[in-house]
Request: fold
Amino acid sequence: MTTGSTIDREIEARLGSAGVRYTRARRAVVGALARADGPRSASELHEDMDQGVPLSSLYRSLSVLDDAGVLEPHNSLKGLTRYELAEWLAGHHHHLVCLICGTVEDIELSAEMESRLEKVVETVTKQLSFDATGHTLEVHGRCARCV
Amino acid sequence: MTTGSTIDREIEARLGSAGVRYTRARRAVVGALARADGPRSASELHEDMDQGVPLSSLYRSLSVLDDAGVLEPHNSLKGLTRYELAEWLAGHHHHLVCLICGTVEDIELSAEMESRLEKVVETVTKQLSFDATGHTLEVHGRCARCV
DNA sequence: TTCCTTGCAAACGATTTGCATTGGA
DNA sequence: TCCAATGCAAATCGTTTGCAAGGAA
Reply:
């Protein structure tokens, strides 16, 4: 299935210059993540994409896509790693982390709020010996399902 | 050693009302975390506290302290869980996350910056079906050692 | 005595890897 | 053709747990 959406073409280019192919399995992973509303773990993706892709291959796909900068890993409850499309594909966003069930939901801030936040980050990091390249605001609490 | 610092006494009370003891092993964990400048994993603590305590006991100590609300788990690179003293003991702070080596360093914001940040969080969460109880700003980049 | 704790080893779940096979440019 | 990609099974790694022995109240 080569829908050739914008995202698909960007990823194809990125992988191409990394010397790896954009195979069916990898497209399926990207598709599932594009459809998701938050980070997904290997086993969650495994269910989402019912097909016969074995877990080990899924892990390999995730690893390749991660190395190529297509994905961003998100470390989740109990030693689980969840992935989402990297910011250059999915846009900059923040996280609502449910302390009960561990799910993470993406949120985007209004331009106004985002710019205020960036101002804070900038001011804070200016005087540190730390080369800041990005930020995420993690809001903790209970999600709608866990109230 | 029963130094009986303020923190120790507060924890002792907390554990007491949870029906568990504040044993030597647990004191050692708290001590190591109090000395650390960021979250520590079980195996990191195992090295820090060089002697005798087997990993499984260390995990159990972490679990008990976590359940009692003394620690706060922090999900780190590659399915590792790192712990730090809970905010009511260590104070509210944020994180500098090194994308290269995965270490996390705590930072405190000035009152000015913290209040600006809180304003943003408040504004954002007000209109969500998410019961927000806290927040952490995660600044990503390269730490001094990984530049 | 009565629970809480600890040690040790086995068990577990998530992730990785070796190897032989398949697939795509 | 030639090297990347895949499946499968076995191996790793962080973490958990069952069970018997060791404290503390």
Observations:
- Residues 111-126 of chain A form the longest helix (16 residues).
- Strands of chain A lie at 40-41, 71-76, 80-85, 94-98, 104-107, 131-142.
